[in-house]
Amino acid sequence: MPDQSFSPSPAPRERGLGSPLPSDTAAHPNPALRLLQRVVAVRPEEVPVVLWCWLYIFAVLSSYYIMRPIRDQMGIAGGVNNLQWLFTGTLAGMLLLNLPFAWLVKTLPRSRFIPLTYRFFALNILAFAAALWFADADATVWIGRIFFIWVSVYNLFVVSVFWQLNVDLFSPEQGKRLFGFIAAGATIGAIAGSSVTVSLARLVPPTALLIGAAILLEVAVFAVGRLARLSSSLHRHPSAAAGAERPIGGGIVTGIVNAVRSPYLLGVSLFLLLFAITSTFLYFEQVGIVAKSFTDRGAQTAYFATIDLLVNILTLAVQLFFTGRIVLWLGVALALALLPAMTILGFGVLAAMPSLGAIAAFQVVRRAGDYAIARPTREVLFTVVPREDRYKTKGFIDTFVYRLGDQVGAWSMAALGGVGPAIAALAAIPIAAVWLITGLWLGRRQAVLEAANPRD
């Protein structure tokens, strides 16, 4: 049973697409609110929380997308054939970091362990900036390999912590309405970060970009502080908001145990594992084609940043106007099934045409579908689990299980290295089919748990 003392305000009866908000909200005299409600079904008391969530995830994703093309270029510089070892290092880093994070969750309230987590990563970024500034050419290759592993750990942790807070703040009904719109703040941040790197990659050293990425994490910490003060506006009872600032407690390994013991959470783990495996298949296909198509490091970085920019422009359009409507139209089950179905089709096309254009188009459409639909819908799955699982188990699944999928995909691609990109694409199709079936089951199970354990 979810911890009732930490639940948001009672969820009203779900409305279909185009149904108005309650009459008092729809007739609100504030024109800005009325305009916002044309885009998303948000209530007046939810608006400040949603906007601070926007700033929070904007800062986090801007920081990551400044560093992402640098990471990808350093992965190529370290040798495409070494990528599977970098993914192995990432998996080990995820496991090592989950245990101290679980201890923080057990010991400190969220208003303290979240800022500590982000400031730890900001110090890491500054350390890499200094190391790259003083390194010679040979040392830069090894720093780049370590940086590749670190960024691959960083991006999942900082985003997972953001969504851990959101699934704790909002009810399942609120999540269906608002998570897609909140995720648009992530997309705007990703566009901003990608644009900065596209514009400056050839003009400034990586050190300058990394310092900017570290400063953005401090902006995220500021937003967390504001959300801690505003969370009471989402609760019916003031005591619920006060209780949310107590340490969650429990055991350090509870998240790992529950991810395996609970059939529902095991299903969520499988869903994310299969997503990660197919993502890694596509990533390796892309890296191999890009390495053959471009020889200049700056051109490689600019290509990756351009793909990121296109992904996020498409994602933003869908998140602002369609995500919440799609979830309400189709329900959680079918919304989760969209990305696996798209992946089956995309790998089929890639098997027939393993070219730079085909893989670029597949990456743009698939990643936009993930960020705009699959990711916000997947977060709704965690709104029906106990509070301890919203942080510990979710953190373990979002980080270690995801990177485990990367590992399986990386070594599978290494084993398939001699068969060519077309055969590798075909090998991903049955994996995506199992992924699709898992999504349908999870969506139906989420509906059952939401009905049985309402967060009032």
Total strands: the figure is 0
Let me know the largest β-sheet: none
Query: How large, in whole angstroms, is the Cα Rg?
Result: 21 Å
Helix/strand/pairing category: mainly alpha
Uncertain runs with pLDDT below 50, 5 residues or more?
1-26, 236-241
Provide a count of the helices: 16
Q: How much is the average pLDDT?
A: 82
Shape category? globular
Which features does this protein show?
single chain, globular, mainly alpha, 456 residues, 0% strand, 16 helices
Task: Explain what the structure shows.
The chain has 16 helices and no strands. It has 456 residues and is mainly α. Helix 10 (254-261) crosses helix 15 (387-415) and helix 12 (297-321) crosses helix 14 (356-380). It is globular. Residues 1-26 and 236-241 have low confidence and may be disordered.
Summarize this entry quickly.
With 456 residues, this protein is mostly helical. The chain contains 16 helices and no strands.
